[in-house]
Write a structure and sequence with these properties.
Elements lengths: L1 E2 L4 E4 L6 H7 L19 E6 L2 H14 L11 H5 L2 H10 L17 H4 L1 H5 L3 H4 L10 E4 L3 H12 L21 H10 L1 H7 L4
Parallel strand pairs: 2-3, 3-4
Antiparallel strand pairs: 1-2
């Protein structure tokens, strides 16, 4: 999302409060990586990242509520009936990696074309430029968003953060056993190293 009004590029990683952030900046939400913005250096830039174990539980519940005709296999009927561990293993076993992003005609990343990469890619890959460097000035952790938003308000002059697209569920830790915790740790290794996440 790019806002000329606020002179900001916001990199909206799926299931990281992006709809709320885009609404605060009075823009439509689009999922685009930094590489969709070759002029990003001319703007202030920010993104939100989320604990990968928590994020996958959020994606799972989002998938369960999604309509069958929308999105990828992630959002298909299977997602509404599988328990979390089975859903996670199904997508791990059917993942075709390595992660790539679909950036065509300025439309942003699409879950239909990008498939599993759209949902399961390490978040840091959304934020790295073609040289592999982190290209976003401000990265806020989802867990600290409410507190950090005060600084965003002061810096950018935006209003309060609305709460959009919330999924109702319990603590993410309750969804995991030792094995599934390690499965997520394996494919989220880059995020864990870059942002210091822990289970």
């Amino acid at each position: 999302m790019k806002s000329e009004k606020y002179n900001v590029v916001f990199i909206h990683i799926p299931k990281t409060a992006g709809r709320s952030v885009a609404a605060a900046f009075e823009e439509e939400f689009l999922h685009r990586t930094v590489n969709a913005y070759p002029d990003i250096a001319r703007y202030r830039s920010l993104s939100v990242v989320r604990n990968p174990w928590d994020r996958l539980v959020s994606i799972y519940h989002y998938a369960k509520s999604y309509k069958a005709h929308q999105g990828t296999r992630l959002m298909g009927p299977r997602s509404r009936v599988l328990p979390f561990a089975s859903w996670l293993m199904y997508h791990r076993d059917n993942y075709t990696g390595p992660f790539r992003f679909y950036e065509a005609d300025g439309r942003g990343a699409s879950s239909n074309e990008a498939g599993s990469a759209y949902w399961f890619s390490p978040q840091v890959q959304w934020l790295r430029d073609e040289h592999g460097q982190l290209a976003v000035e401000t990265v806020i952790r989802f867990e600290e968003l409410a507190k950090s938003w005060e600084k965003v308000v002061a810096e950018f002059g935006v209003g309060p953060l609305p709460h959009r697209n919330k999924t109702e569920r319990g603590d993410y830790r309750e969804y995991y056993d030792d094995y599934t915790r390690d499965v997520v740790a394996d494919f989220a290794e880059e995020d864990i190293k870059e942002f210091g996440f822990s289970f």
